[in-house]
Design brief:
The complex is a heterodimer of chains A (276) and B (305). Chain A is built from 15 helices and no strands. Chain A starts with a helix and ends in a 6-residue tail after the last helix. Chain A is mainly alpha-helical and 276 residues long. Chain A has one domain: MetI-like (MetI-like fold, Orthogonal Bundle), CATH 1.10.3720.10. Chain A has helices at 3-35, 39-42, 57-65, 68-99, 105-114, 120-133, 140-144, 151-162, 166-174, 179-190, 192-208, 211-216, 225-234, 240-260, 262-270. In chain A, helix 1 (3-35) crosses helix 14, helix 3 (57-65) packs across helix 14 (240-260) and helix 4 (68-99) packs across helix 8 (151-162). Chain B has helices at residues 2-7, 11-54, 70-77, 79-110, 117-129, 132-142, 148-155, 170-195, 199-207, 212-223, 225-240, 244-249, 261-270, 275-304, and strands spanning 56-57, 65-66. In chain B, 40% of the residues are buried. A two-stranded antiparallel sheet of chain B has the order 1-2. Chain B starts with a helix and ends with a helix. Chain B is globular, with a radius of gyration of 26 Å. The longest helix of chain B is centred in the N-terminal third of the chain and has 44 residues, at 11-54. The chains are: A mainly alpha (276), B mainly alpha (305). Chains A and B meet through helix 1, helix 4, helix 5, helix 6 and helix 12 of A and helix 2, helix 5, helix 6, helix 8 and helix 11 of B.
Chain lengths: 276, 305
C-alpha cells in the first residue's frame, strides 16, 4: 500500500464507517425514542426523529397492563440456571473426555458431538412429547433442564482442556489432592477464558430463547420476557409506545452484558467459529 | 510400558497403580454422567423419535397409529408444504449470500488501521446484541407504511413500500432483517480468521508490489478458506432455523409468503396437533441440514488437494 492509496482509503472509509454505525444503531435509537412518545406521536407524518414533547408514560402504562417484572424475573432465573448448568456440566464433561482414560470414551464423545448440529426446530415435536411425559409443561424444570448442557459447550471445553498440560493435574494428584478438588481448584481456574466466553454466549442464547417457552408455557406466571413481549404485541390492538418501552427494558441486560463483558461477549461468538 | 512393568518384580506397586487408574476411570465416568444423561434424553432420543413419530398419525389425544410413509407421501403432494420449502430456500439463499460478502467486507475493513476503531466496531456489532423478539417487534414498527424505513427511502425519492402487508415484499423485509442481524456475527468470526494470518505474508507481497486487491485475492481469501467454509455452513443452518422473526412479524402471511419451514412445523404440531406430520417435516429439515453440511465439507476438501 503506497502513501497515495493510504490517503484515498481514509477518504472512502470514514463515510462508510458512519453509514455502518448508523445502520447498526438505527433500530436502537428508534426503539428508545419511540418509547418516549405517545401512540399518536409514533404514527405522526412526517415521522418525529426526536420525541416532542418527551413522554414518559409508556413505561408505567406497560407495567400496569402486564406483570413484566415477573416475566423479567422468569427470564433471568431461567437464563442464569441454564448458564450455570452449562458451565458446570460442560467443563466436567470436557475434563472427563480430555484427561481421563476409560472404555468407550471415543464413542461417547461422538454421541455428544452428533447432537451439535441438531437444531431444536428438528426435534421440537419429540422433545415436547418427552417433556410432557415427565409432566414438565408449565414448570421451571421444563424450561431449564433440557438445556442444561449442549454438545457445543462440551466440545469447546474438551478442546480447551486438551491444550492444558497433564503435568499440572498429575502434580496435584501426587500432592494428594482429591479428584473433585483438582477439578475445582486447578482445572476450573485454568479454564477461565473459555468459561467466560461460553457463559456469556449461553446467557445470551438463553435470554433469547423463544420457540421452546412458546411450546411448553401457557401459564401467565411462567412466561419469560420474549414470550411476554410477543403476546403483548399480538393482543388488544397493540399499544406501540408501551411495546417499545418493554422492548427497551428487555434489551438493557444484553447491552449491559455487552459493555461490561465486551471481550467475553465477542469471544463467545468467535469461539462458535472453532474448528475441529 | 507393559513389558517394563512385567520385568519389575513389584506386584504390590502394580496393583496399587491399577487401583488408582480404575478409580480415575470411575471418576471420569461419574463427571460425564449428568451431561450424558441430558444429551441422550433431550437430544439424542428425540432425534431418533422424530423418525418414529413421522411414521405415525398422532394428535396427542388418541394413541399413535402406524401409517408407514403416508406422511411423507402426503407432504410431497401438499402445496402448502412445497410452498413452505420454497420460502425457506429463498430465505436461505437470499439472506446468506449477501451475509457472506458483507461480513467478510466488514471484517477486512475493521482489520485495518482506523481511528476510533473500537467505537465503530461496537456500533457495527450492535445488531447481534438485540434480542431476537425485540428485533422482530422494533422492525415491525420500522416497516410501517409511514415508518422510518420508508422515510429514509423517501430521501432517495423511492416510493413507500408496503413491506409486511404485501406478499411480494414481506419475505424481502424479513430477509433484510436477517442480513442486518447476521452480518456482524460472522464479521466477528472472519475477524478472528483474519487476525490469524501472519503479517509477514502481506509485507512480502508489498515488497513485490502486489496491489491491495491482489493481496486480498491471493493471500487473504485462500488462507481464510477454513473460516469461510465454517461461516457458510453455520449461516445456512442458522437461516434454516429462522422462526421468531416471521412468526412475530407476519405469522407466515400474507398469503403464506413468509411461512418458512420451522414456522410451518410449529403450526402443524402445536396449532393443528398433527404430530406425525410435523415430525415428517422435521425429518426433511434434518435431511436438508445434514446434506448441506456434508456437501459443503466435501466441496471444500476437494479444492484443498
Amino acid at each position: 500500500m503506497g502513501r497515495g492509496s493510504r490517503h484515498r482509503h481514509g477518504v472512502l472509509t470514514y463515510p462508510l464507517l458512519f453509514l455502518i454505525a448508523f445502520l447498526g444503531l438505527l433500530p436502537y435509537y428508534w426503539m428508545l425514542s419511540c418509547s418516549f412518545k405517545t401512540n399518536e406521536q409514533m404514527f405522526a407524518v412526517p415521522i418525529q426523529w426526536f420525541p416532542d414533547p418527551i413522554n414518559w408514560s409508556a413505561y408505567g402504562d406497560a407495567w400496569r397492563a402486564q406483570d413484566f417484572t415477573r416475566y423479567i424475573l422468569n427470564s433471568a432465573l431461567v437464563a442464569l440456571a441454564i448458564t450455570v448448568g452449562n458451565l458446570l456440566l460442560a467443563s466436567l464433561a470436557g475434563y472427563s473426555l480430555s484427561k481421563f482414560r476409560y472404555f468407550g470414551r471415543g464413542v461417547l464423545f461422538l454421541l455428544i458431538l452428533s447432537t451439535m448440529m441438531l437444531p431444536l426446530e428438528v426435534t421440537m415435536v419429540p422433545l415436547f412429547l418427552i417433556v410432557k411425559q415427565l409432566s414438565w409443561p408449565n414448570t421451571y424444570e421444563g424450561l431449564i433442564v433440557p438445556f442444561l448442557v449442549e454438545g457445543f459447550g462440551v466440545f469447546l471445553m474438551r478442546q480447551y482442556l486438551l491444550s492444558i498440560p497433564n503435568e499440572l493435574i498429575e502434580a496435584a494428584r501426587i500432592d494428594g489432592a482429591s479428584e473433585l478438588r483438582i477439578y475445582w481448584q486447578i482445572v476450573m481456574p485454568l479454564c477461565k477464558p473459555a468459561l467466560a466466553a461460553l457463559g456469556v454466549f449461553t446467557f445470551r442464547e438463553a435470554w433469547d430463547m423463544y420457540i421452546w417457552p412458546l411450546i411448553i408455557v401457557t401459564k401467565d406466571s411462567l412466561r419469560t420476557l420474549p414470550l411476554g413481549i410477543s403476546l403483548f404485541m399480538s393482543s388488544f390492538g397493540t399499544m406501540w409506545d408501551q411495546l417499545m418501552a418493554v422492548a427497551a427494558i428487555g434489551t438493557l441486560p444484553m447491552i449491559l452484558l455487552f459493555f461490561f463483558l465486551q471481550r467475553s461477549f465477542i469471544q463467545g461468538i468467535a469461539i462458535t467459529g472453532l474448528k475441529e | 510400558m507393559s513389558v517394563l512393568a512385567s520385568t519389575q518384580p513389584r506386584p504390590t506397586r502394580k496393583r496399587l497403580r491399577l487401583d488408582i487408574s480404575a478409580k480415575q476411570a470411575l471418576f471420569g465416568y461419574a463427571i460425564l454422567l449428568p451431561t450424558l444423561a441430558i444429551i441422550v434424553i433431550f437430544r439424542f432420543l428425540p432425534m431418533l423419535q422424530a423418525f418414529y413419530i413421522s411414521l405415525h398419525e398422532y394428535d396427542l389425544i388418541r394413541p399413535p397409529r402406524f401409517i408407514g410413509l403416508e406422511n411423507f407421501i402426503d407432504l410431497l403432494q401438499d402445496p402448502l408444504f412445497l410452498n413452505s420449502a420454497r420460502v425457506s430456500i429463498l430465505y436461505v439463499v437470499f439472506s446468506c449470500v449477501p451475509v457472506w460478502v458483507l461480513s467478510l467486507a466488514l471484517a477486512v475493513l475493521f482489520n485495518r488501521e482506523i481511528r476510533a476503531k473500537n467505537l465503530f466496531r461496537s456500533a457495527a456489532f450492535m445488531p447481534v446484541v438485540m434480542p431476537a423478539v425485540v428485533n422482530a417487534v422494533v422492525w415491525t414498527f420500522m416497516y410501517h407504511q409511514d415508518g422510518v424505513v420508508n422515510t429514509i427511502l423517501g430521501w432517495f425519492s423511492i416510493d413507500p413500500i408496503p413491506w409486511l402487508r404485501s406478499s411480494r415484499w414481506a419475505l424481502w423485509a424479513i430477509i433484510l432483517i436477517g442480513i442486518w442481524r447476521a452480518t456482524p456475527y460472522y464479521m466477528v468470526i472472519f475477524l478472528a480468521g483474519l487476525q490469524a494470518i501472519p503479517h509477514e505474508y502481506y509485507e512480502a507481497a508489498q515488497i513485490d508490489g502486489a496491489s491491495p486487491w491482489r493481496q486480498f485475492r491471493h493471500i487473504t481469501l485462500p488462507l481464510l478458506k477454513p473460516t469461510t467454509l465454517l461461516v457458510m455452513v453455520m449461516s445456512v443452518i442458522v437461516a434454516m432455523k429462522v422462526f421468531a422473526v416471521p412468526l412475530i412479524m407476519t405469522g407466515g402471511g400474507p398469503a403464506d409468503s413468509t411461512r418458512v419451514l420451522p414456522l410451518f412445523i410449529y403450526q402443524t404440531a402445536f396449532e393443528f396437533f398433527k404430530m406425525g406430520r410435523a415430525a415428517a417435516m422435521s425429518v426433511f429439515l434434518f435431511a436438508a441440514v445434514m446434506v448441506f453440511t456434508l456437501l459443503q465439507i466435501r466441496l471444500f476438501s476437494r479444492g484443498e488437494d
